[in-house]
Each structure stands twice: as structure tokens, then as C-alpha cells.
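Human:
Take a look at this sequence-structure pair and walk me through the C-alpha cells.
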Amino acid sequence: QVQLVESGGGLVQPGGSLRLSCAASGSFLSINTMGWYRQGPLNQRELVASITSGGATNYADSVKGRFTISRDNAKNTIYLRIDSPKPEDTAVYFCKAEVAQVQAGTTKQYQYWGQGTQVTVST
């Protein structure tokens, strides 16, 4: 099993900043792409940003220039720095990891999700 634990959420004012962390632990061969998703009260879960093990990043258009995803492979941890947040960024933010694990002698790819952390942008 793999556990993803997010932290760093909370209340932030518009124009402020916040940093989310997601640490992976458990039994696996490697962690490939990791990413942040979010889900607002009336919205479907959507991709915010992702990063490969090699450091290639991808961002949703709505957060480009304001959010920065980074990764520490030695710690199996990713981060999401949120700058100049807007009220529409308010959501539960989830971490996802694509993990290589051996099951019955075969290496397969599995997806794991964290439990989510609330980010609220408000004055």
C-alpha cells in the first residue's frame, strides 16, 4: 500500500501565498508522475498541476503564472506553491501519485490519492 499525506491547506487572503505538501510513503518500486487536483463544492475534480520524476511540469491554464509545482524525489514529496490566490481557487486539493509496484511477480502501475486538504481564499 501507498499512503499520500497532504498538508499546508488553510485560509489565505487574495494576493497572499500558501504552500501545500504531499508526502508519499509505503512499499513501491518508483513513483512516476505526481500531481495536484482540486474539487470545489459544485465542480468536478480537475487537474491543477503535475510533475514527472524527471521534473517536467504541466499546469491548468487557470493557474499558470500563479502556481508552482515542485518535487523532492529523495523525500517522495511534491509541493504546490500558490501565489496571488483568487476566491475561485477555493477547493479541496488532492494529491495523486502514479506508482510502480510488484504484484504477483509483475510490475504494474497503480494510482493513489491523498485525503485532500482544504484551501479557502477569502478576506
